[in-house]
Design goal:
This protein is α/β, with parallel strands linked by helices. The protein has a domain of 177 residues: 3-Layer(aba) Sandwich (Rossmann fold), CATH 3.40.50. The chain contains eleven helices and ten strands. It has a six-stranded mixed sheet with strand order 6-7-8-3-9-10, with helices on both faces. Strand 4 and strand 5 form a beta hairpin. Helix 7 packs parallel to helix 8. The longest helix has 14 residues. The relative contact order is 0.19. The structure holds adenosine-5'-triphosphate (ATP). Adenosine-5'-triphosphate binds next to helix 1.
Length: 262
């Protein structure tokens, strides 16, 4: 099971609809290999929809449609020849609410993705992957003596790190995180942020967050989404996080990062 490198992900001219309702308009963004990109913006501007488009989850919603392309290392994941399972394996996702399998052991939770992705592994390989992914998710030391206990018995923050481990166990090249800390207390939030920090360079991370301090702390690059009244969401400004927070080029970015609206 070779471990692959972080990959660049490029969204080109992405538009999205729910039925007749257009929610994103020609959004283009390059998410650089091994970097952390934060998606920020007021509620309802299409950040989560954009994130779900990046690993083909948007198409699971019956009324949903989209235009544009998502290119992972040179190949459009929406090309008819591309398998949805390959996109999901290469581009993992962690959600707002931790969703481990509650009755399944911590060990089995960590490697639950192998079966879903059709990856066969020996017992020794599984043992290695469990330890490796739990270490990467900064959870190993807390659970190494109780790997056979149910995942549902962990604290909320530990469950979220278990979900991160589960995503990492299939060696994704990109990890999408949709407000991963919004249900966590400050200590658990810090642990998840430390985990993100330690993954930098190994996997490309795209994180949606409403927490401006978090975006400033964890991301290299930031994209500010906005949906003005009755118009679909679009990117107002994107670039180096430090520059976006300290010297934004657009007044609306300045207002948002300084808490003046949204
Ligand atoms: N399943 C759905 N069916 C219909 N409309 C939807 C669906 N999901 C989202 N929308 C609409 O798409 C638009 C963008 O929603 P989205 O959740 O992507 O925004 P967001 O920026 O992530 O918001 P938040 O920060 O509140 O999570 C909104 O107008 C929302 O009402």
């Amino acid at each position: 099971m070779p471990r692959e490198q972080a990959a660049e992900l490029q969204a080109n001219q992405i538009s999205a609809w729910f039925g007749e309702h257009k929610v994103l308009d020609r959004v283009s963004l390059t998410m650089h290999a091994g970097q952390v990109t934060a998606l920020i913006g007021p509620s309802g501007c299409g950040k989560s929809t954009f994130l779900r488009i990046l690993n083909r989850m948007h198409e699971m919603i019956p009324s949903a449609s989209l235009a544009g392309e998502v290119v992972l290392d040179g190949a459009d994941i929406y090309h008819p020849g591309q398998r949805i399972t390959a996109a999901r394996r290469n581009i993992g996702m962690v959600f707002q609410k931790a969703n481990p399998f509650p009755a399944m052991s911590i060990y089995d939770n960590a490697i639950a993705g192998l079966k879903l992705c059709g990856i066969k592994a020996s017992r020794a390989q599984k043992d290695f992957l469990v330890e490796d992914s739990l270490r990467k998710a900064s959870l190993w030391d807390e659970v190494k003596d109780r790997l056979q206990q149910p995942g549902g018995g962990l604290s909320g923050g530990q469950q979220q790190r278990l979900c991160i481990a589960r995503s990492l166990a299939v060696s994704p090249r990109v990890l999408l995180m949709d407000e991963p800390c919004s249900a966590l207390d400050p200590t658990s939030t810090r642990r998840v942020e430390e985990t993100i920090e330690s993954l930098r360079g190994q996997v490309t991370i795209v994180i949606v967050t409403h927490n401006m301090q978090q975006a400033a702390r964890v991301s290299d690059t930031c994209a500010f989404f906005l949906a003005s009244q009755n118009t679909p969401g679009a990117i107002v400004e994107h670039g180096d996080t430090h520059a976006m927070f300290n010297n934004p080029q657009d007044q609306r970015t300045s207002d948002y990062v300084n808490g003046r609206f949204g």
